Amino acid sequence: INAEYMGRVQNLTRNVTIPHLREIFGKFGEIVEIEGDEQDPLCDFPKGRTTIEYTNNESAIEAFANMKGAQIDGEEINVSLIKIATTTDNKIPTQKTTTKAAPVNTKKRTRQGK
Length: 114
Known about the structure:
The chain has helices spanning 18-25, 57-67; strands at residues 5-10, 31-34, 49-54, 71-72, 75-76, 78-83. The strands form two sheets. The protein has a four-stranded antiparallel beta sheet, with helices on one face. By secondary structure, the protein is an alpha+beta fold. The radius of gyration is 21 Å and the shape is globular. A hairpin with a 2-residue loop joins strand 4 and strand 5.
C-alpha cells in the first residue's frame, strides 16, 4: 500500500451499507478497507461515520474532491482527508505512552476551629 491519506465520511444514514459505499467510492480507485460493522443486522455505521482507505493517494484525493457536498440516501455527506501516520523505515509505529494523573482527593474539606 502506497497511501498516506484515508478519507473520513460523516453524516451517513442508517440505510447506508459497506457494499453501497464500496460501489460509490470504488469508481475512484481500489479500496483497501471501509471501516464498519457488517455483522450488525440493523446498521453498518451506527455512529453515522466511517473511514475509507485507498491503495494510493491519488484515488483518495480524487474521491474526496468529487464527493464533497454529495448526497447519499438523501442526506448530504461530509468528507475529509486524514493523513495516515507513516514511518520511514517500515517499522510499526510505536504507541504513545500515557501517564496516569495522581488520584484526586474527593473528600470534602472542613474548616477546623469554627
